[in-house]
Specification:
six-stranded mixed β-sheet; 606 residues; five-stranded mixed β-sheet; 3 domains; GMP Synthetase, Chain A, domain 3; Rossmann fold; alpha/beta; single chain; Luciferase, domain 3; 38% helix; globular
Length: 606
């Protein structure tokens, strides 16, 4: 989203009314992923397909001709190693260019790509490998390989290290050998996605080439101005559907993808590659906001006042634009001056060319959207599920509402059940879980999938989500509460990083709290204390409680946390407490900290 006011004035327009204005050549819509490769080779062979960062830290551009050439060579190597049409090929690696090369190469060979989360524990890896029927595994080294048991390895026809497979030696071995570029059809299976799942073992979902292409075309309809001159960053886990679909959209449009292998460096590297499109998750935008606020604490005097004034003026300016009101010349002048002095430098954290900023995977707090909007960045929130290749809904550059999930995309039919559950039907919808891991009542009689998410359409036509049906807790007093909403309020505390609310079957709510350890260690009151000492520190508890009480005006009495426990260890992927997209696994966290929660109720006598 650009920081141009014209974009905001288009706000009331009906989504989907725009026509595509992309600079990509008009060609027949592809029906397979292979068609995309062929199209780019024919129309844009010398264009920049992607970039990667070498060991010296230099960005290396790769043309479509080079990129597809590498894909073809690796595909031939896979075929020579015994990978045949219909075989399931597992890929377990961290995000990198080679991941995409292997993915595309496997599809060229007619294989079905099974993404395995590189952060998954051994039991999850074994489950995915066995459940999917994978006959081959491409991995990125010992850290991944040690999660694969010897019995599992013995049953594979192929197991290769990713970079070794993609290295130049492969090109010499396979040079001149034919590869059948037309070996797949639209109805052939292309990938099996495993749900990151906030409870239990992940379930497999198989999608065809056609369904992946439906997702591409629908995304292009929703964001019609994107084209070949745009560039984006690939940094989210590539075992995840969100990043894979965004990559396919970029390929389809001829955009340049920059691969960032270490997600901790994405902000630093974004300034180097200067993308026009950036896709993140709420947790990323929260951490970036925390960094900005922490920087503010180092300012004093006129510098601190200037920073706060700029944010206040930016907020008022953005609020008027969202309301469809002209800011007036005085506010416009003040905003222009403070934007030049302060706000543009905040926007510059993600480069100077961002014109489309998107967030997916989980709801993003409205206050966070308002903060970035005050800085001149409108984050466009989308809503998707693993069971549908197409985003269900998305806010658009010319039509968005903070707190909403946006308008339905063109391939979807969306309805709300009488119980308030979001239902979806369309060409991108899955047909059932792999291995018949299905539950009764997943689909309605007329073919709509029950998402498990609760929501409603507003009078403005936007979808508003209110929580997961399975997450709604019921207190012993009969109150039904959406914990996600409560947690989003308390996470606004300057001292709090993560919050998980408890209260099922109890008289009132309590919470598990992870403090912002990095910020606390830079505070002279807490410097030098270990995490364990901070978790037990009465002074920190008092400050958190004071912050919580100041935020509770946004909550009803029954939604307020009565007591909380401060934990010394953040929730993590390794402990199985977070999904690959950093959503909390609520059941695992509450079960793992059952004693902490019981103590909170025992001390209050409830």
């Amino acid at each position: 989203m650009s920081n141009c006011a014209d974009s905001y004035w288009a706000y009331p327009k009906v989504a989907g009314a725009q026509e595509r204005v992309t600079d990509a050549p008009v060609v027949e819509a592809p029906t397979t992923v292979v068609d995309i490769l062929r199209s780019q080779m024919e129309l844009n062979p010398d264009g920049e397909a992607c970039r990667y960062r070498n060991a010296e830290g230099k960005w290396i551009p790769v043309s479509w001709k080079e990129h597809v050439g590498d894909i073809v060579r690796v595909s031939a190597a896979l075929t020579e190693s015994g990978i045949a049409r219909g075989d399931r090929l597992a890929v377990m690696a961290h995000t990198c260019r080679e991941w995409q090369v292997v993915e595309m190469a496997g599809l060229l060979a007619g294989a079905v790509i099974v993404g395995v989360d590189a952060h998954a524990v051994s039991s999850q890896v074994e489950h995915v490998m066995l459940h999917s029927g994978a006959v081959g595994l491409i991995h990125d080294g010992d850290a991944c390989l040690k999660k694969v048991s010897s019995n599992l390895r013995a049953g594979l026809k192929l197991m290769r290290e990713m970079r070794e497979l993609c290295a130049g030696r492969t090109a010499k071995e396979t040079k001149g050998r034919p590869v059948n570029l037309a070996s797949c059809s639209p109805e052939d299976p292309a990938t099996i996605i495993y749900t990151s799942g906030t409870t239990g073992l992940p379930k497999g979902i198989e999608y065809t080439h056609r369904q992946l292409m439906v997702a591409c075309e629908s995304s292009m309809d929703a964001f019609p101005a994107l084209g070949r001159k745009d560039s984006s960053i690939c940094w989210l886990p590539m075992s995840n559907l969100l990043q894979r679909i965004m990559n396919l959209v970029a390929m389809r449009l001829g955009m340049t993808l920059s691969f960032v292998e270490d997600p901790r460096k994405v902000v630093e590297l974004a300034r180097e590659v200067n993308p026009t499109v950036f896709v993140g998750v709420p947790r990323f935008f929260e951490k970036l906001h925390e960094g900005i606020q922490q920087k503010l604490t180092t300012y004093s005097g006129w510098k601190a006042r200037l920073f706060r004034t700029a944010l206040a003026v930016g907020d008022e300016y953005a609020r008027r634009l969202r309301a469809g009101r002209r800011p007036g010349w005085r506010l416009t002048f003040k905003h222009a001056v403070l934007d030049r002095l302060v706000l543009r430098h905040i926007r510059g954290l993600l480069g100077s060319r961002i014109r489309c900023l998107m967030s997916g995977s989980a709801p993003i707090p409205v206050w966070l959207l308002e903060f970035y909007h005050a800085c001149g960045l409108a984050i466009l929130e989308g809503y998707g599920i693993s069971e549908n290749t197409v985003l269900l809904t998305a806010n658009r550059v010319d039509a968005y509402r903070f707190g909403s999930a946006g308008f339905p995309l063109s391939a979807n039919e969306i309805s709300i059940s009488s119980e308030g559950e979001v239902l979806v039907r369309g060409a991108g919808l899955f047909r059932g879980y792999v291995g018949n891991a299905n539950e009764d009542g997943m689909f309605t009689a007329d073919g709509f999938y029950r998402t498990g998410d609760c929501g409603h359409f507003g009078d403005d036509g936007f979808l508003y989500l209110t929580g997961r049906r399975s997450d709604i807790l019921k207190t012993s007093t009969g109150r039904k509460i959406a914990p996600v909403r409560v947690e989003s309020v308390y996470r606004r505390s300057r001292y709090v990083d993560q919050v998980v609310v408890a209260g099922q079957g109890r008289k009132y709510l309590t919470a598990l709290v992870i403090p912002r350890f990095e910020m606390l260690h830079s505070d002279t009151r807490f410097a030098g204390r270990s995490r364990e000492e901070l978790a037990a520190c009465p002074e920190l508890h008092a400050l958190i409680r004071q912050d919580f009480e100041s935020l509770e005006s946004d909550l009803s009495d029954h939604e307020r946390v009565v007591d909380f426990a401060v934990l010394a260890r953040p929730f993590s992927l390794e402990a199985g407490e977070l999904t690959g997209t950093l959503k909390v696994r609520r059941d695992q966290i509450l079960a793992g900290h059952a004693q902490d929660i019981d103590r909170l109720y025992n001390t209050k006598g409830a």
